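Hi all, long-time lurker, first post. I run a small reading group and we've been trying to get comfortable going from sequence to structure in the token notation. Rather than ask abstract questions, I figured I'd post a concrete chain and ask someone more experienced to write out its structure so we can walk through it together at our next meeting. Sequence below, copied exactly:
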Amino acid sequence: MFKTVEESSAFVHELDKRLPSLPGFPKLSVKIVVFPPFTSLYTVRNISQHIHIGAQNFHYEEQGAFTGEISPLMLKDLVQYVLIGHSERRALFHEKDEEINRKVKTALNHGFTPVLCVGESLEERNAGQTFSKVENQLEKDLEGLSPEQVEKVVIAYEPIWAIGTGVNATPGQAQEVHAFIRDKIIEKNPSIKNFLILYGGSVKPQNSYDLLSQDDINGVLIGGASLKIDDFFAIIEHSYCHTN
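-- Answer (accepted) --
Happy to help. Here is the structure in token form:
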């Protein structure tokens, strides 16, 4: 919950202005997505042909008596991505896996790319429950999807204990969970060839290069650092070091 319409617009304009300095521009080997507030989506949607737009949340119903909610129909022509199951949605707004599963299915049915967030709390990690928690979330959140649909879902591993705390998982810790996620999804969907897993949790320029160096980390879901244009762009540049 940051940035007014004017601030969002200025941010995306500035980001677009910096893109020509990236290797290979205008053909970009890294996909850049920003998730502005709902109030800014219409304004920022056509600022840059190189920056994709996503929504931070949405409702799984197309319309109805759900005051204050945003439906997939309202997002049509505004976004290409939707964030689903972020830890703050789960913790603060009590979203359950069953609801998240419905959102994933709705997103796919309407042509959006879901970015599904999973991750464990500090208590669960200390209790040795990281893998069982993540596996349980994946099981419930992807229930009823075909392998072709699962392949379209971007998974974001975000250890809750590392979000906004300044304490990120080490590259080794993150890689271990990413490899586990990849193995579990392929185990249930052997026909899948390629899908993306992002890491999210206190990602900043100081650690993004090492995180992106890991075999199973395909990108990053950035929180606080994405609000500062210099930090955000530095992380994008680090992404390029691993794709060019």
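A couple of things your group might point at:
The CA atoms of residues 56 and 83 lie 5 Å apart.
The chain has one domain: 5-241.
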